[in-house]
Specification:
- The chain is globular and about 65 Å long.
- It is of the alpha/beta class.
- 51% of the residues lie in helices and 12% in strands.
- α7 crosses α11 (224-238).
- The protein has a 6-stranded mixed beta sheet, sandwiched between helices. The protein has a two-stranded antiparallel ribbon with strand order 7-8.
- A hairpin with a 7-residue loop joins β5 and β6 (178-180).
Length: 279
């Protein structure tokens, strides 16, 4: 058995309950991958996107849905070591990735504030454009269950809004294209367990901005996402199902109990909602 076959076997056996079945659940529940789709599976080189690529590859091989996956790596300006690591992992996991270059790191390196926000937007734009050039109607990203929970809490605590992360969205700038998140029902802790089980090494965020930070600075509590992770971890010690409760709550919104909300680009304030209920 090759190393790649061993990794694939771990997904379908050792991690069947935590990785494979949650993938199938997300694909079916949200109709993420359908017959006739041509999907650009976007690989950044981190653990999430590499698992995404392998799961989609296995799902395609299973043959229950007639679609075409295309594995896409955008090099935004990685250093030589990170580029080699991505290429090594793609070869190791037998993922036939196409690599194309962009100058995103050059652009964001000169930005004084919010370089990560700009980088994320530019990455997505380049991926959409390349995917469309290759005839794809969808791009798949590696956001997972834990991202959904953390993003919801960050929006609440720091953005003064209740805002989730959708499993599938229409592109606003590339008409007719969609973004899908097949890892939507998979927890980050289970991705980490799979990575460690198979002794895999993936790159972390490798932009020039974060390369300037020390390891301690990367791990300190000034990170809003890290704060959300730590809060969830602490709550889970007393309430083991707290993550699932937050996730399920996003699917059970009672809009009649909200004093105001936004939908379809329109704002609904309390007074107009209250008046409409008395009519």
């Amino acid at each position: 058995m090759t190393y790649c076959e061993t990794v694939e076997k771990s997904i379908l056996s050792d991690f069947r309950e935590t990785l494979w079945l949650p993938l199938l659940e997300a694909v079916e529940r949200y109709k993420l991958i359908e017959n006739g789709d041509k999907i650009a599976v976007c690989i950044s080189g981190g653990k999430d996107s590499m698992l995404l690529a392998k799961l989609v590859q296995l799902f395609h091989r299973q043959g229950s849905v007639d679609f075409e996956p295309l594995f896409l790596v955008m090099d935004p300006g990685y250093n030589e070591a990170n580029r080699r690591q991505i290429e090594k992992n793609c070869a190791l996991l037998e993922i036939p990735a196409r690599i194309f270059e962009s100058n995103i790191f050059d652009v964001t390196a000169s930005v004084g504030s919010s370089p990560c926000y700009l980088c994320a937007r530019m990455r997505r734009g380049h991926l959409y454009a390349k995917a469309r050039e290759l005839g794809c109607g969808k791009i798949a990203l590696g956001h997972h269950f834990s991202d959904v929970i953390e993003t919801t809490l960050i929006g609440m605590f720091y953005g003064s809004q209740l805002q989730g992360m959708m499993p599938k969205i229409h592109s606003t700038n590339f008409e007719g294209m969609e973004l899908v998140r097949p890892l939507y029902c998979i927890k980050e802790e289970d991705i980490i367990k799979w990575r460690n089980f198979n002794s895999l090494e993936f790159i972390r965020c490798a932009c020039r901005f974060t390369e300037q930070l020390s390891h301690e600075a990367e791990e300190n509590s000034s990170s809003k996402r890290l704060e959300a992770k730590l809060l969830i971890k602490r709550l889970s010690e007393d309430y083991p199902d707290v993550e699932s409760s937050i996730f399920d709550s996003l699917h059970n919104l009672d809009l009649d109990s909200f004093p105001a909300y936004k939908a379809g680009g329109r704002e609904y304030d309390f007074n107009s909602l209250f008046a409409s209920k008395s009519e």
